[in-house]
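Why do we bother with a discrete structure alphabet at all? Because it lets us treat a fold like text: something you can write down, compare, and reason about line by line. To make this less abstract, here is a complete entry for Glyoxalase. Read it the way you would read a sentence in a foreign language you are learning: slowly, and without expecting to understand everything at once.
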Amino acid sequence: MKTNQIWGNLAVKDLERTTKFYTTLGFKPNGNSEELSSFFFGDNNFVIHFFIKEQLEKFMPGIADLSKGNEIIFSLSAKTKEEVDNWAAEVRKAGGTIFLEPTNYEQGYTFGFSDPDGHKFNVLYWPGM
């Protein structure tokens, strides 16, 4: 399987505090809303989205339990809904655990899985991305 992009999603308790922190450190903003602040990291402009806990929990149930420390989910982009479904089939064949079956999310389509060590990913088709 091939992916075009990868980025990180982290849950935060206080979005304003997080935005101020990374802005103060000089990270280049990648946009923000009431639910998230996004920044570029490193020379390759790796993107990390900092979601308010409730928004990330709505998007990926069970992923944003801050009482257990920081949880990260890496998002892999897909070009079509069919590609998302193909990823799900391949993950099952490879022995991964599907924790979110392929599903519509707002105007996109996604599914979530963890690798054998429990590291979490989601594959996301988002029109125009």
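What the structure line is telling us, in plain words: Strands lie at 6-12, 28-32, 36-41, 46-52, 72-78, 97-105, 108-114, 120-125. The chain has one domain: 6-125.
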